[in-house]
Automatic annotation (TrEMBL):
Organism: Helicobacter valdiviensis
Name of the protein: Glutamyl-tRNA reductase
Segments forming domain Quinate/shikimate 5-dehydrogenase/glutamyl-tRNA reductase: 174-307
Entry keyword annotation includes Membrane: no
CDD domains (UniProt xref): NAD_bind_Glutamyl_tRNA_reduct
Keywords: NADP, Oxidoreductase, Porphyrin biosynthesis
Subunit record text: Homodimer.
Catalytic reactions on record: (S)-4-amino-5-oxopentanoate + tRNA(Glu) + NADP(+) = L-glutamyl-tRNA(Glu) + NADPH + H(+)
Record's comment describing the protein's domains: Possesses an unusual extended V-shaped dimeric structure with each monomer consisting of three distinct domains arranged along a curved 'spinal' alpha-helix. The N-terminal catalytic domain specifically recognizes the glutamate moiety of the substrate. The second domain is the NADPH-binding domain, and the third C-terminal domain is responsible for dimerization.
GO molecular function: glutamyl-tRNA reductase activity; NADP binding
Binding, NADP(+): 191-196
Catalytic residues (positions): 52
InterPro entries listed in its UniProt record: 4pyrrol_synth_GluRdtase, 4pyrrol_synth_GluRdtase_dimer, 4pyrrol_synth_GluRdtase_N, GluRdtase_dimer_dom_sf, GluRdtase_N_sf, NAD(P)-bd_dom_sf, Shikm_DH/Glu-tRNA_Rdtase
């Protein structure tokens, strides 16, 4: 089996293509798509990480090339984009390269904004979604949770996430750069998800007057209460999504980040106005239809590159250190996988039992407790005894080795009989599964 990743990101694919590939976990079609992937005979496990910056197909496959061909075919059917074009834009990683890429993504080194903190939660949600559907098993669980350990080490060992920035904070910074100040300026935030929450929080901290709207008014009201608790003297009120046409023609500054599968702001909603408007579309697929109007400047995710480049320059040295950590964790991960083979452990335990038995046999003979002429018979009897004693242990260890709780058990046995440090027995735990069933992953 091989780890492999088919990757589309801001590095190799523009937003117009990414939005056609986006798979929203809230959409039932995404679950169907994921289940169909693992039904393929060449693919054992799969999870899909879909964000505004990337779509990653993370796989455990028996034949990486066939798996890639199948994913491209399925993705072509889903997006109505030719498989040849999809292959032209995709990056494909196998084994060590795949794990290195996964760890880099989890550590926010491959993000549009280096050091942003959203990706860890997005990866965790993608894993939870796949695991709950039965599409993610032992091998991918091992890789994902090692990725979380790597990301934690990067955060703790570098300053890459200090004063962390995100696409939302970059958008608000861009608005401030354009307008000079956001203090007392009205800003409309559309949506109540993580990106919208961050936008609203940054705007409020900058002194803006925020109007929040969302299709689900209850979610908007809940978010409003949370933000008012977090930000002192917040100027914030909720308006009905039904009034969105009126709001976009009254408020010049808009930040939109919904999970809608289609545009929610369209040309026919616009009224003629001499007012300059600055709209930030942070959704993929995009929330705002392409509009040609000299008075309206629309910024999509990919348009924030200038601030991103400044961010990258500041963090370049820390990123170099972080990539060193990713490289070490990649090597450690494969060393650890190799160590999980139970056959050497069983062989070692049997040898320990045999050596102990023969040592005591020779001791008994030398002290006259046992006659020398019975040595071979006694040796055979002892050999049969420790074989019988270890029989059930051997069966149980082999049976448990490839189950979710097997890794911790195997490492514990190695520690008890070999004295090695059980590197992952306590550290390698699946938070999502523990929440559900208090099991190790």
């Amino acid at each position: 089996m091989s780890y492999c990743i088919l990757s589309y990101s801001h590095k190799n694919t523009d937003i117009s293509l990414r939005e056609r590939l986006a798979l929203d976990p809230k959409n039932p079609a995404s679950g169907v798509f994921l289940k169909e992937i693992v039904e393929n005979k060449f693919i054992e496990e799969a999870l899909i990480l879909s964000t505004c910056n990337r779509i990653e197909f993370i796989l455990n496959a028996s034949n990486p090339q066939k798996a890639q061909e199948y994913i491209l075919s399925k993705l072509s059917d889903y997006s109505r984009i030719g498989a040849d074009k999809l292959q032209e834009h995709a990056d494909f990683y196998e084994d060590i390269a795949a794990i290195h890429h996964l760890f880099s993504v989890a550590s926010s080194l491959d993000s549009l904004v280096i050091g942003e903190t959203q990706i860890s939660g997005q990866l965790k949600n993608a894993f939870k979604f796949s695991y709950d559907l039965g599409c993610c098993g032992l091998e991918l669980s091992r890789a994902i949770h090692f990725a979380f350990r790597c990301a934690a080490s990067v955060r703790n060992s570098t300053n890459i996430s200090k004063n962390a920035v995100s696409v939302a904070s970059v958008a608000v910074s861009k608005a401030k750069e354009i307008l000079g100040t956001l203090k007392d300026r009205e800003a409309l935030v559309i949506g109540a998800g993580e990106m919208s929450t961050l936008c609203a929080k940054h705007l409020l901290n900058a002194g803006a007057k925020v109007i929040l709207t969302n299709r689900d008014i209850d979610k908007a009201n809940t978010l409003s209460k949370e933000l008012k608790q977090d930000v002192e003297n917040a100027s914030l009120h909720v308006d009905s999504f039904k009034n969105i046409a009126k709001l976009i023609n009254q408020i010049p500054l808009i930040f939109s980040a919904t999970g809608a599968p289609h545009s929610i702001i369209t040309k026919d909603m616009l009224e003629a106005s001499s007012m300059e408007r600055f709209w930030f579309d942070l959704a993929v697929p995009r929330d705002i239809e392409e509009i040609q109007d000299p008075k309206i400047k629309i910024f999509a995710v990919d348009d924030l590159q200038d601030i991103v480049k400044k961010n990258l320059a500041i963090r370049e040295e820390q990123a170099r250190i972080a990539y060193g950590i990713v490289g070490r964790f990649t090597q450690e991960f494969f060393d650890w996988l190799q160590s999980l083979n139970v056959d050497p452990i069983i062989k070692n335990i049997r040898q320990l039992a045999k050596d102990s038995a023969l040592k005591e046999l020779q001791r008994g003979i030398s002290k006259g407790f046992l006659p020398k002429e019975y040595e071979k018979n006694i040796e055979k009897t002892l050999h049969n005894a420790f074989n019988a004693f270890l029989h059930q242990f051997t069966i149980s260890l082999k049976n448990v080795a490839n189950t979710p709780k097997g890794d911790s058990i195997v490492e514990s046995v190695r520690f008890l009989f070999g004295g090695d440090d059980p590197k992952m027995a306590e550290k390698y735990k699946c938070e999502h599964i523990e929440e559900k069933s208090n099991k190790h992953c």
